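=== Structure Prediction Worksheet ===
Name of assembly: unnamed complex
Input type: mixed (protein and possibly other molecules)
Chain count: two
Listed entries:
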Amino acid sequence: MGGQSETQLVEKLAKCDPDAIAVAYDLYGRIAFSLFVRITRDQSAAEDLVQELFLRLWNRRREFDASRGAVGPWLLSIARNMAIDYVRSAQTRFQSKLKPIDQTNTHRFSYKPKEPEHVMDAAKAIQDALAELKPNQRKVLELAYFEGYSQSEIATRLEEPLGTVKSWMRSALERVRISVKGGAKP
Amino acid sequence: MTHPEMNELYELYVLGALEPELASEIESHLVDQCEYCGERLQEAAIVTAAMSGMAEQLEPPKHLRERVLASMRPRKQAKSWMYAVGGLAAACVLLLAYALWSMNTSRSLREQIAALTQERNQLRSAVEVLSRPDTRMVQFGNQNAARGRVFVSQNGGVVFAGSQLPQIASDRTFQLWLIPTSGAPRSAGIFRANADGGFVNVVPGPLDLTGIHAVAVSVEPSQGSPAPTTTPILVVSIG
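=== Predicted Assembly ===
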């Protein structure tokens, strides 16, 4: 992480400091690359998407509030959308349902100081929780996050009742939520 | 829908996994600037972003960092530099083109001026020959062969004009000769005929026409010859 905090990153972005992207890359480059590879399953495409991701960040640098911190969740939300958009056609069902997050107010994705230093900590914290998820819980979570499926689409894909899928999803999200917020054992 | 009922939906909403009717419920709260929903969505955004941790963590290629940073560097300067070089190159090309054009144009103009000057001088000489009282005129040829007139003045010179000279190779020229009654022919200049075989050759005076009894035309190399190298195609007696 290069010893740079999310707060420093936001401050550098707000000042249009050219060093901000280096800081951002050191914080989020690895996880963004991993996410792109996971969704696209194409390393070359992932590299292109990483470059585009940080370009988008730089282009919207003035929208981040240094007093609140907002980069990590926003950046990874954008990354996920970009990767799924890459895999799917722009005219697919996903486009009509997925919230265009990159056009949403960045403040929605800010978090308060009492919460983890940055989203990377949360991403690490989630590893333990995921390890303890049941396979079906993890499966529905992955289909929603990596593939962009709705619950009903997951039900169809898995050939399971919608109610069952919602139950798996609810319990999976609860475990993840707990691990991210408090680090409490699920 | 009440807020407690919505608590389990915020992450699904951020993921885009909610059914449209449920998503609309949340959006209606957002439209009303619901503070509770706003805060829950902030938290949901962190939870969903943390899900990126589900992906196997891979090490990006080492070149990727530099590639990303290079793409962020101000392009204005590079563009300015490139534009400057491009502009300079374009200017050089234009300048070179202009120089070449100027040279060609200049050369062309010089050639035209030289040609016009030569024509003017020929015309003056021709007028002088034709206007002198001692000028004699000899008509030659017939309808099916080269024909024309020769104007001869001892002091003014010779005007040799006519038509229907044959076409010759481009590397050859016509050469006019003054033929004395004895001795070698004397060159009276080279000339070319136009496409129709028309021609005018002016030999400025004064000339020593003593003993000259004829003029002749031969086909010679383009620079002319000190003495005829071919049999004359035309001989006109002026004696």
